[in-house]
């Protein structure tokens, strides 16, 4: 009979996933377990992930990391949302901005219902004009929320752009101070226990054997433990998210970085632009059925804000997820657990969310099936609903290239079909359970992609048209005044967190 207590945790991989996991576990349970992290300099890290969503602030706060220091150390900038250019058709533009649409909801009726009524009457501006983060983003403004009530500035919902390699280094320093032991070396073998197939140890090319009770697979796309050793299986989503290649290239930074990510549709995919303090990150995500690597690189290089600082770096991936994220005594976190293209900056969030679930369900006394099943159920739900959200961006388009036609005609998951049908027919949107993206996110992308219902909530008609116009336009004026009072994004950075 094994003693089922967890005394030794082995983390395989030292990319963003490995060091985020190491730092959190060291902070939360480092006194009662020994944590060892193995990484290989020869293999290296993906090191792309540069754009995030606001939840990362909670992660940093849990670790007690000062936000200005974090932005300085990672050469970061602030992010109020994502701008989608040319997605619906060439020339179109909308934003998925973080935070709320409008001001406070009136009773139980959301602001956008009033907007829908005025939209039908042709008496309203685009939805983004009533979304504080978008108004501020368009002006190139940024500041943190003031906490003072009754103003759009009370709570500014922001995330960051940052250099993921520097973030991993920053967290490594943090984790090592808390006792995490790092080993540089290449794992060449994984030893499974005879009786139950649990992982017993990994073996390095030096011959060293590292044993543990819990193994966290942060080895990236290769899934060294979860797939190569445990053969867990992968669910392929290429039929819904067909892009499978990326070219990434940094270019010179600009003096006034935008406080938002830009995603521009291209003939067989899309291009990201992520401004950092010391450079701008760019990448072209595309589908190899419709475009070759040379053409993809040429399109990327022809559409940069500044001089390219390197040659385009090719990356290959298959969108999808592991059939189980936690299998026996191994939990896959990061790219080893699955990958969706970085359209809504979800990957680093999934790392954070996986760590949070692992902490909530930490197997301090062995590996109960119920615990493992619950972890897998919750993670699957989050992956699938986020997948639906990404598919929505591709689906509703009026572009004429073969890639986009295929996206328009594809069969979609029932869960997404239900959400679109409900919104189209009744103007209602609901966030289910722990879905990552809220009604506000879905609303902006639905409307941005041209899905605008011809109805609105019946309670809207409790107010007369003039009152609605006054309320909606009054909100816009308040948002504009508040945004105009903010400093510019560049000014805010140089005052608080400019890297030397
Ligand atoms: P990796 O960075 O690949 O790290 C794997 C680690 O495992 C390395 O340390 C490696 O040395 C180690 N390893 C592997 N095999 C062995 C072995 N045999 N022995 C020892 N060590 C080993 N995410 C976002 O949130 N926002 C974005 O904007 C974003 N953009 C992206 C764009 C692209 C094109 C891609 C591909 C990803 C993007 N991501 C983004 C995802 C993000 O890059 C990853 O989620 C993040 O970097 C985590 O990677 P990882 O740590 O899981 O894997």
UniProtKB/TrEMBL annotation:
Active site positions: 79
UniProt signal peptide: none
List of residues binding 7-chloro-L-tryptophan: 79
InterPro entries to which the protein is assigned, alphabetical: FAD/NAD-bd_sf, Flavin-dep_Halogenase_NPB, Flavin_halogenase, Trp_halogen
Molecular function per GO: monooxygenase activity; nucleotide binding
Magnesium found in the keyword field: no
Pfam families given in the database record: Trp_halogenase
Lipid metabolism recorded as keyword: no
Alphabetical UniProt keywords: FAD, Flavoprotein, Nucleotide-binding
Record: residues binding L-tryptophan: 344
Binding site for FAD: 14-17, 335, 348
PANTHER family in UniProt: FAD-BINDING PROTEIN (PTHR43747), FLAVIN-DEPENDENT TRYPTOPHAN HALOGENASE (PTHR43747:SF4)
Protein name from the UniProt record: Tryptophan halogenase
Organism: Dokdonella immobilis
